[in-house]
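protein under study:
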Amino acid sequence: MIQTVDSGLAERGGVSAESAFLAFHEVTPDGFMMFDPVRGEAGDIVDLEWTFANRAAGKIIGRDPATLTGKHLLVEMPGNRDEGLFDAYVNVLETGKTWQNEFRYDHGGITAWFRATATRSGGGLALSFADISEARAGEERLKNLIDGVLAFVGVLSVDGILLEANEPAIAAAGGERAQVIGRPFWDCFWWDVDQATKDQLKQAVATAASGERIRYDVQIQVVGDQRLWIDFQIAPVFNAAGEVVELIPSGVDISERKAADTHRELLIRELSHRVKNTLATIQSIAGQSVRAAETIDDFRSSFNARLRAIAASHDLLVRFDHDVVPVKALLQGQVLQYAANEKQLVVEGKNIHLPGDVAHALGLVLHELATNAAKYGALSSETGTVTVSWHVAVDEGKKRLFMSWCERGGPEVKMPTRKGFGSRLIERSLAPTGDTAVIDYDPKGLSCEIFMDLE
C-alpha cells in the first residue's frame, strides 16, 4: 500500500497533494523510499517495511520498485545492518532527528557511494538517496592529483582558517593533520619563522579575502628544523554571485633557485673584484715593462708573456668553477711550459686547492720565477731542476700556505746590483693581501720562500 502524504494542502484544480507527491518522485533523479517500522514482541523496531519506492530508487538498487512494497529491508538488503545504516534509521524514528551521511555500500551486488537523508514522516521513515560514486571518484582523482604534485596546496576559509591541505604540505609539517587543520593559517607549523612572517601572511589573507590574488617569495619552516624558500600565493575562489567563498594557498619550493641567485650574485661580486685587481696588475705590468725594456720588441715580448700568465691563471679559475684551483694544476700551467722535460720540475706536497684570489696572485709569482729560471737559472740548463714544495699550517690563528721554490744545477747565481722588474712584480702581486715572498740568491741556485693567507 502507498502511504498517503499528509501535506496539509487542500486539493486545488483537481490535483491532490498525493498526486503531486507521486509526480515529483517519478521525475526526480534521486531515489526515494518510505518505510513503516516493524516491531518485535517487546515493541522495539526489528525491521523496516517498504511502503513506497520511486522509479529512481529501483534503478539505483537494481530492483523493480513495484515488487518492494510490503517487503522487509533487512531481508532484502541485509547489508544495511552490517554498515550501521539500520541503526541510524531506527534512531531517526525514535528521536525525530534527521540523519544525513555519505557512505560506501558494497553488498548484494551493489557497490557504490551514496549520499542519504533520512527523516521521520508521520509514524514512518522517509529516505532520500543518490548515487555519488562518479563524483567521489572525481574527488579522489583530484585529491590524488593534488597530493601527487610537489607544491604545497591548501584550502582556507575567508577568515584564514585552514580547512584542507595536501599530503606534501602535511608531511612538511610533520605528518599530523590535527596539528594544522582547523587552525588559523598563520598559527600553523610552517609559519613559525618569526612574527614578521606571520604578520605578512595575515595581511595576504585579508587582501585575498577582498578578491585580489597575492604572490610573494617567503621562507617557511618544515620538519627537521629546516627552512625552505617558496614561491607563495593565495588565490580567492568566487561563487556565482561574485563573492569570495574560499581561499587557495599554494607554495612551490624555490630553495635551489634562491641558492643559485645567491651564488650568482657572489660570482658577480667576485668577478668585479677580480677584474679590478687584474686591470690594476696589467696597468702595473705595463708601466714597469716600459721602464725596464730597452726596445719596443723587448717590451712586447715581456708584456705579452705576462699577459699570457694572467690568462693561464684565469683559464684555471674558469675550468675549476671560479672557487678553487688545485696547486699542481697551477704549477703545470705556469712552470712546466718553461722546462725542457717533466723531470726538471719536482713537486713535493699534497694537491691542495687554492682559493681563486690566492691562485691568481700565486700564478703571477710562479710565472716570474719560471721565466727568470728559464733565462738565467736552473731551467736554462738541461741538467737544472726546480723543486717546489709546500704545506699548509695555522700561523697566528690563520691558515697559511708555505711554499718553497728551490733551483739547483743551473748557472752560478750572482747577487743583482739592483732590484729587477721580476722581483718588484712578485712583491706587488703579494703586497695587497699582506702576503710575502723572500728571495735568496744562493750561488748554487736561487730560492724563494712564499707565505700566503688562505682565508
The mean pLDDT is 83. The first helix runs from residue 17 to 27. The longest strand covers residues 226-238. The radius of gyration is 44 Å.
